[in-house]
Amino acid sequence: MTVRRALFQVHWFLGITAGFVLALMGVTGAGMAFEDEIMAALSPGVVRIAAPTGRANALSPDALAAAAAYQRDGARVQDVTIERDPTRAAAVHFAPEKGQRLGDRSYIDPRTGVLLGKATGAGVFRTIENLHRWLALPGAGNGVGRQITGFSAIALIFFALSGLYLRWPRHPLDWRAWFVLDLRKTGRNLYRALHAVIGGWMLAFYLLSALTGLWWSYGWYREGVRYALTGKSAPAERRTAERGKDDVPTSPSLPMGPAWASFLRSDGAHYDRVVVTLPTGDKPVTMRVLPQGARFDRMTDELRFDAATGASLKTDRYDDRSIGETIATNIYPLHTGAFFGLPGRIALFLTSLTMPLFTVTGLLLYLARRRSKRALAAVMTSGQAEDGTGVLVVHASQTGGAERLARLSAAAFPQATVRAMAAVSPADLRAAGTVLFVVATYGEGDAPDSAHAFERSVMAMPADLSGVDYALLALGDREYVDFCAFGHRVDAWLHASGARRLFDLVELDGDDPDGERHWQQQLHAIGADAAQSDWQPAAYAPWPLVERTLVNPGSPGAPVYRVVLAAPADADWTPGAIAEIQPRHDPARIDRVLAACDATDDAALRNALATAILPEDGMVDPDALKPLPHRDYSVASIAASGMVELLVRQCPAADGGLGIGSGWLTKIAAIGDPIPVRIRANPGFAAPEDPATPLVLIGNGTGLAGLMAHLRDRARTGGGAAWLFYGERSAGHDRPFADELDGLLGRGTLARIDRAFSRDAECGRYVQHLLSENASGIVDWADRGAAFYVCGSLAGMASEVDAALRAILGDDRVETMIATSLYRRDIY
């Protein structure tokens, strides 16, 4: 397992465990961000009081402490908070009762000494604080809750650093790759973008929250950080206080009058707030003084006075502290963002509030990954071998989707081998001879983690792969700029290494049933099991058969029919589209199966068998029947015509009948019968974006259908001229759409038509020969920016046409035309 994959697994595991605790800590932390302001707003007459009238003077700390103790039946006061602002109440903090960690805090009128009580919401905020610090579990700071939140803080540090590593973009100096959030994305892509991009925004804040939050979780961490910052440990009394001990002194407090008078003489003119700790025993009076204009409320000076004489014993000014001491004494303001003033508090509030976002998006991504794993597991249990002797199927998968499709592809070939890309070498590819690649693109054009090493080492330079035939299925998502980028890099490397494409690269856009069926049909064209059901079937709609005409009577080839289906009013498609037809068996074939199992009178079974893969052994299990795979036909018509027009050649079946697709459309179905149809877009054979682009159309046989759609669309909308190269068997019998083509030639939509008839003695040529004879014209049209479209049979025509074009234009130019969509093929 690579380091990246190991980090990824740990990241996910912690995300579905500590992530929920961090979400709670984030929300509760945000809830405490403006605690004082909220309680003040909710507590008129308690936190905020009326301004004094006349010459009413504030009471001294001694008097306030005495008044508070008297009103609480002699309870001991630990400290008194004096505010300079006359509209803010003073506060007294009582010593905790036995068994409690903290004592009560009550506001008090600074001029009358009357206790005003607690601020509204104080209890709620204490509950929020308990949830934040130890999940409000038993044992408080000494219980298991503190260990859980401490571990979660460590997990947050890991999330931040591992997330940074895992999302490191291909172009790290491009700031947009780090910080731009594309909200046009949907589904899993949006979840990933929210998780990664917003995580990048929050990275520094989360590291700050986690590193400071550990201060209260582990004593060893606190002491280590303090020693690293200041070079010394905390005094014993501070360590005791930080551990939350209950051994509070019970000796009576000493008077603070002399110390308070000294303070007023030295600092009384420039303070905003002072917290006076009442002395006990022989301890001095300690005052924490917040100077006027301080950035946050813990930016305090610490003053110590002799309780008896008021003499100054120690003055520790905030401004005089070293950077390390400043940090060590302000961990809490750093944790809340107050250290950076109001902007820091707002920033920490927002980042804490968004913590659940990462738990939610992480969980959604995890569930999506689990679905992919389940889909892969269903294929894994089908008994697919890992080390067959036939076709080699290579996968590069991030979430299991590519591996699933690789195994489904291998299942269509006997004795196929399935291997991960990381486990193959050029020697393995040469030994196999025929290789199918199913590769995913991850993130911003990256290879899956498991394929990084292959790309870095094996694909660093071309290998000797002459004699290797390959096909490539590239998985990606068009919401990303680098759609299927890794698949294209693999394709370019294979071609540069001398391998031969069996057919053009097929792209899958996310969860793309249409693309999967297209790949499946292309596999059938190179020898895969044609009886394999669709991997992701889609719903058909019934389109009536309205016309069927034989277009090549007397031809030396098999009969070809023009089949016309009525399209629904809302049906729409663009040139290059594919009609997927649900075929039906010849009734005679079904009769033989029913006779073999003595069920000739079972009408329900007869109907089920009509569209199902028939059992080879004659034993029929109605519950185990699998649907027939669809049949693909290029659509010759445009949507504006309101009909789907097909060219269908009758194909013989092994049992002496007709093929299940061609037989159904050309013989079995009656005029008016509903034909189950679904239209599939074919982006790889779509019209040029600029209608002024000239077209060079090349096809043979029924491949003319796919070219007719482009010609008809060009005739309707106008644009650049077209040049048609077409090959068939006989000039006297094989001229489908001849009158329409002549009309297009006369109107200028077609600039030229060149035909080849292979069975005529006076011709005897194929369409590729026409290209070679017109090489100078091909170069001229290519120089004018023409787009080349090839439609027809994969065996023979497509490969020979490709070789002819490369001989005329050069291999590099053809590859550039492929990359710029100026060379498109619909071959089968």
Describe this entry's structure for a reader.
The protein is an alpha/beta fold and 828 residues long. 41% of the residues lie in helices and 17% in strands. It is built from 29 helices and 25 strands. The strands form four sheets. It has an eight-stranded antiparallel beta sheet with strand order 4-3-2-1-5-6-7-8, covered by helices on one side. Strands 9, 10, 11, 12, 13 and 14 form a six-stranded parallel beta sheet that branches. Strands 18-17-20-15-16-19 form a six-stranded antiparallel beta sheet, sandwiched between helices. A hairpin with a 6-residue loop joins strand 3 (105-108) and strand 4. The radius of gyration is 40 Å and the shape is elongated.
How does the SSE layout of this entry go?
Elements (H helix, E strand, L loop, with lengths): L2 H13 L2 H14 L3 H8 L18 H11 L5 E7 L6 E5 L10 E4 L6 E3 L4 H13 L9 H23 L8 H5 L7 H27 L5 H12 L5 H7 L14 H11 L3 E7 L7 E7 L9 E5 L6 E5 L6 H6 L2 H6 L4 H13 L1 H26 L11 E5 L4 H11 L5 E4 L5 H7 L1 E7 L11 H6 L11 E8 L8 H12 L3 E2 L4 E4 L3 H13 L15 E10 L9 E7 L11 E4 L5 H10 L6 H8 L20 E4 L8 E7 L10 H9 L5 E7 L14 E6 L3 H14 L4 E7 L9 H10 L2 E8 L9 H7 L1 H9 L3 E6 L1 H16 L1 H9 L3 E5 L1
Parallel strand pairs: 9-10, 9-11, 11-12, 12-13, 12-14, 21-22, 21-24, 22-23, 24-25
Antiparallel strand pairs: 1-2, 1-5, 2-3, 3-4, 5-6, 6-7, 7-8, 15-16, 15-20, 16-19, 17-18, 17-20
Helix pairs in contact: 1-6, 2-5, 2-6, 2-14, 2-15, 6-8, 8-14, 8-15, 15-16, 21-22, 26-28, 28-29
